[in-house]
Amino acid sequence: MKPWAVLFLLLAVPAAADWTPARRAQLQALDKVTARVTVVETAVGQDARFQTLSIRVVACHARQPDEVPDAAAFLEISDSRRGAAPVFRGWMFANSPGVNMLEHPVYDIRVLECR
């Protein structure tokens, strides 16, 4: 992650008290070749599969009910075609998917919500 992105995230992310830990994450997966969109739901700490991707949700947090709806999930994503090293590791935000995103030629993953 670029240093300016880390600074942006530190300034943009509200205090931890504004976020509620959740047990499940709902993700949207896109196959860019076929344009097929799939909703993937998984429990925090569990692995989910989408095509050749293995997605682990390490943490998932939702905003308080009286706040603007948003979700943030810490994801570790590996591609079986690219070896064991993660192709993505970091926080993704539902309301700001472009801040920190998976850069993959075939697939796109986005956080929808945490419950």
Automatic annotation (TrEMBL):
Name the UniProt record assigns to this protein: DUF2155 domain-containing protein
Superkingdom of origin organism: Bacteria
Species in which this protein is naturally found: Plastoroseomonas arctica
Listed InterPro entries: DUF2155
Endpoints of the signal sequence: 1-17
Record keywords, A-Z: Signal
